[in-house]
Fold this protein.
Amino acid sequence: MASDLFTQVVNSAPGSFLAKQLGVPQPETLRRYRPGEPPLPGALLIGGEGRVVEPLRAALAEDYDVVANNIGGRWADSFGGLVFDATGITEPA
């Protein structure tokens, strides 16, 4: 699958050198789904306090390793996906 031009340039040897000198971040390689592979490479973190959180957790729990809010401190985990339900936010902080 072809990458975009920026990624190709920044990941080339001269482009990588120049990007480091200029402080340009290296883009992450995006994981692409392939048939037969799990849809996510790790647990799915679902957070927030909105009205969609619980139905979403219930719907996805059968197919994914769902972690709720991560309040228990699984900080060392590398999550495969993140869903944040912001429907409960009514005004800016």
Q: What stands out?
A: Helices lie at 5-11, 13-22, 53-60.
